[in-house]
C-alpha cells in the first residue's frame, strides 16, 4: 500500500427490527471509529417478538440476502435477539460472510450472579422460546431464572432513542412484573434480552426496586465483531457514506434524523427488495 494511504474501512451491516441495534452501532463507534457501518431496520414488521417463527425466518433470510447483495458488507451483525434465536443457522448457510448474532446474556448472568437468582427482560415471544430454556440449562443450570416478556418496553425504548419523554410509571410497571414474581427479591443480576432495551438502561437503574447488576449485550456484540474483523481480509473498495435503510418510512422523520446523526447517519432511505415474504 502506498505510503500515506490508510487501509480501507471494513464494512459492517447491522440489522434489527427497529432501532435496537443502534446500541451496537454506538459501541462499535466507540471501539472502531473508522469502521464503515450500514444499518437496516425492518420497521415494516416491528416488533419481531410477536411474529410466528417460520414465516419470520423466511422474511429475515430473504431481506438480508437482498441487503447483502446490494451493500456488500464484510460482516453481518444480527443485533436482534428474536432474529438471532430463529434465523442464525439459515443466514450462515445462505450468506458467504461471517454472521454475528445477539442472544440473551443468560450465560453472562450465570457467571456474575452471587445469589444464583437471575432475571431476564425480553419480548414476550422471546421469553416463551425453547432457546431460552436451552441457554439456561446449558450455561446457568445452577441459577434460578426469572423472565418477564415485556411487550411494551420495545416501544418505550424506540421513543427514548428518539428523545421523547418516557413516564417512569410505564417502566416501573414492567420492572415490578419481574421483581414481584416468587423469589424476585433474590434477583441480583438482570440481562437485557432485547437490544432495544439499551436505551432504557438509565431508567432501569434509577427505577429498580432493588440493587442489581444490569447486563447489556451491545458492548459484547461489538467485541465479537472486533474479533471477527481481525480474522478476515479486507477488500480494497471505494469509500462511501454510511446508509440507514428501513423497510417502512418513520412516522417522525425529524426526530429520527436528529437521533441518528450523532451515530454517523446523515440521511435515511426506504429499502424495498424486489420480493420478501410479508
Average residue-wise pLDDT? 90
Q: How large a portion of the residues is in β-strands, by DSSP E?
A: 15-25%
Helicity, as a percent range? 40-55%
Based on Cα principal axes, name the global outline: globular
For this structure, what is the CATH class of the largest domain?
Alpha Beta
How many domains make up the coordinates? 2
Count every beta strand, where a strand is a DSSP E run of 2 or more residues: 10
Main sheet makeup:
6 strands, parallel
H-E order: EHEHEHEHEHHEHHEHEHEHE
Structural class by sheet pairing and helices: alpha/beta
What does this structure look like?
It comes from Gluconobacter wancherniae NBRC 103581. This is Glutamate racemase. Pathway: Cell wall biogenesis; peptidoglycan biosynthesis. The protein is built from eleven helices and ten strands. It is α/β, with parallel strands linked by helices and 278 residues long. The protein has two domains: 144 residues, Rossmann fold; 111 residues, Rossmann fold, CATH 3.40.50.1860. Strand 7, helix 9 and strand 8 form a beta-alpha-beta unit. The N terminus is likely disordered.
